[in-house]
Amino acid sequence: MSARKKEHRDRLVILTFVSVLLVLIYGPAAPWFIAADRFLFDQFASHVRGAPLANAMIISINPAKKTNDDILGDYGKLVEVIQNQNVGRLILAEPPLIGEAGQLPGWAALLEGDTPVFVPAGHRFADVADRTGILALNPDSDEILRQVRLWHLQGDIMSPTLPLAIALAGENFISDPRVSHADFSIYLTNYEPVERISSEDVLDAEFDTTVFKGKTIFLDASPTLVRASAVLPSGQFVTTSEVTAQLLADIEQGHTVVAPTWLRALEWLVPGLLAIIASLFLPSRNRRDIFLFATITILLVILVEGLFLLIGRMRLDLGRAVVIFLGASTLGWWLAGTVKKASANAFKRGNDFLAAGRLEPAFAEFRRCEANEPLASAMYKLSLAFEEQAKPERAEAVIQWMKRTQGSTHAPNKFSLGGKHGSPQRLGRYVIERKLGRGAMGAVYLARDPRINRAVALKVIPIEKEFEDEELEEARLRFFREAESAGRLTHPNIVTVYDCGEDKHLAYIAMEYLQGTPLTQFTDPKRLLAPNKALELCARVADALDYAHNQGVIHRDIKPANLLYSMRQDLLKISDFGVARLTDNNRTKTGIVLGTPMYMSPEQLSADTLTGHSDLFSLGVTLYELLVGEVPFKATNIAVLMTKISTEDPAPVSNRRPGVPPSVDAVLFKALSKRPENRFTNGGEMAIALRNCAKYAA
Question: SS3 string of 259-303?
Answer without folding.
Answer: CCHHHHHHHHHHHHHHHHHHHHHCCCCCHHHHHHHHHHHHHHHHH
